[in-house]
Design brief:
With 346 residues, the protein is α+β, with helices and mostly antiparallel strands. The chain has two domains: 80 residues, RNA-binding S4 domain (Structural Genomics Hypothetical 15.5 Kd Protein In mrcA-pckA Intergenic Region, Chain A), CATH 3.10.290; 243 residues, 2-Layer Sandwich (Pseudouridine synthase). Helices cover 23% and strands 28% of the residues. It has eight helices and 16 strands. The strands form three sheets. Strands 5, 6, 7, 8, 9, 10, 13, 14, 15 and 16 form a ten-stranded mixed sheet that branches. A four-stranded mixed sheet has the order 1-2-4-3, with no helix packed on it. A hairpin with a 6-residue loop joins strand 15 and strand 16. The N and C termini lie far apart (66 Å).
């Protein structure tokens, strides 16, 4: 039996079923799609049934980061949740959707095909995984007349900068194909701990994604002969080196480097892991960073405190999905990062 499942449906019935992905859900990661369908099911269990192969996409095994498309058939194994939990979760989701504020963002480019915004740090790009709503939900609430608004790509919640949103399905496919075929240019600004060596310009190290016991995603560098490793290349250019001054009463001056980082591949957490593995973690990174240094910087009184990760999607180059014109967008550093840079002493 097949069901057309939208973004907010859930079925707690303990039986195997096949759902067909609706147009509204096209482009979502499989794990996020399932977390929305299986509301009330623990996140760890959702990842477990994906890894075990119990979840099938068009009859084939699939990974958590695969993208679902309109018309795809997803096989779901039996999962049990109480009716009380199902009803409570559904009510919370409906309330959150109704309460999502009508929010607009700083617009870098807009036409009838696409929208480019400057995403602030601390905001997820979409709801799911414990987040009621993100950028795309805010935009849809602010633009109820829009017939189609879909994310072209993702940025981590704590990363600020350029984010593309498609306003037509044809534009979405064209732009996502460019990201997949590495036809886009993606450059970030990152501030890292330590003095980055000027001759360390290319980081070519395979990455492997894995899950912590609670289902949270992590990434690590692996050997080149590791069958699970994915080719990952990052280019690094030093823009400024200096010190932050004393970050606390008991600490010495901290050496830091402002880097221009260009992605040649687009792996999950690629910049964060590549830089941290070199011994120069991004300041403020709560997953791969120097946690003690992060605490000191957030409490610093002698320089502007840094209470977020210093990673900003600064420049994006792509071909317009209709005209084919090569477009370059720039998003200036947010004021809190610009202020931090200004106080770094060369």
């Amino acid at each position: 039996m097949k069901h057309i499942i939208g973004g907010n449906e859930a079925s707690p019935l303990p039986q195997v079923k096949t759902v067909v992905v609706s147009e509204d859900c096209a482009g979502q990661r499989l794990d996020n799609f399932l977390l929305r369908q299986l509301k009330g099911v623990p996140k760890t269990h959702v990842y477990r049934i994906i890894r075990s192969g119990e979840v099938r996409l068009n009859k084939g095994r699939v990974s958590a980061d695969s993208r679902v498309q309109s018309g795809d058939a997803v096989r779901l194994p039996p999962v049990r949740i109480s009716q009380r939990v199902a009803e409570k979760t559904m009510a919370m989701a409906e309330n959150a959707a109704c309460e999502a504020p009508r929010r607009e963002f700083s617009i870098l480019l807009e036409d009838e095909h696409l929208l480019a915004i400057d995403k602030p740090a601390g905001l997820a790009v979409h709801g799911g995984s414990g987040v009621s709503f993100g950028v795309i939900e805010h935009l849809r609430m602010a633009r109820p007349e829009a017939k189609f608004l879909e994310l072209v790509h993702r940025l981590d919640r704590d990363t600020s900068g350029i984010l593309l949103v498609a306003k037509k399905r044809s534009a979405l496919k064209h732009l996502q194909d460019q990201f997949r075929e590495r036809e886009t240019g993606k450059t970030y600004l990152a501030m890292v701990a330590g003095a980055w060596p000027a001759n360390r310009k290319v980081l070519d190290k395979p990455l492997h994604k894995y899950l912590l016991p609670d289902g949270e995603r992590r990434v690590k560098v692996v050997a080149r002969d590791n069958p699970d490793g994915m080719s990952s290349v990052t280019l690094v250019k030093v823009l400024k080196r200096g010190t932050t001054g004393r970050t606390s009463e008991h600490s010495n001056e901290t050496k830091v480097s402002l880097l221009e980082v260009t992605l040649k591949t687009g792996r999950t957490h690629q910049i964060r892991v590549h830089l941290a593995t070199e011994g120069h973690p991004i300041l403020g990174d709560d997953k791969y960073g120097d946690f003690e240094l992060n605490k000191c910087l957030s409490r610093s009184h002698q320089t502007p405190g840094l209470k977020r990760m210093f990673l900003h999607a600064w420049r994006l180059q792509f071909n317009h999905p209709v005209s084919g014109e090569r477009i370059e967008l720039l998003a200036p550093l947010p004021i809190e990062l610009e202020s931090f840079v200004a106080h770094v002493e060369s």
